Amino acid sequence: MMAAQRRHGTRLATLLLVAGLMACRPAIPPASGTDTRAVTTLATGTQCAPSAPAPAARWLDTPASLQSAYRDMTRHSLGANTLPAPVPDFAAYGVLQVFMGQQPTGGYQLRLLRPNLELHATAATVRIEWLSPPPGAILPQLVTSPCLLLAVPRGAYHTLTVTDQAGRIRANAAL
Description:
The protein is α+β, with helices and mostly antiparallel strands. The chain is 20% helix and 31% strand. It contains 2 helices and 10 strands; from the N terminus they run H-E-E-E-H-E-E-E-E-E-E-E. The strands form 2 sheets. Strands 1, 5, 6, 7, 9 and 10 form a 6-stranded mixed beta sheet that branches. A hairpin with a 2-residue loop joins strand 6 (118-120) and strand 7. The longest helix has 23 residues, at 2-24. The radius of gyration is 24 Å and the shape is globular. The protein starts with a helix and ends with a strand. The relative contact order is 0.23.
């Protein structure tokens, strides 16, 4: 009986020692992972950059640059919104403007796919759903240029990569 108690006591002491050592180790921030602060959609548009033929992204880090981008993206829309764009806390967030590029008809759209950033050392990835109209759909025959304004948490990254639902890289923005 005494030998069994000693064995259990030794196991318990070993377990407590290991737990104590684990608690004392320094916290090392992960080089990659997911930022738990949410990426949120501020605005979407269909006539954002009519002269931009290809997908692109740009970082906006001041309220003035956001208001200018918002004015540009709503200026060509029927019933254009004259209200100011929602402004995030620029100390904690910046704004990513994503352009789909010029499209031949209506029915194209961008939508935030995941609300969290994927972090990779000095870069981060935002996942966007690139929507196309279904084959055979009846569509307005006008050139469109969809875009999206996203409030993105600031972090230790220097580049934002925009990927689509299939994981293809569509654009990059330097911060």
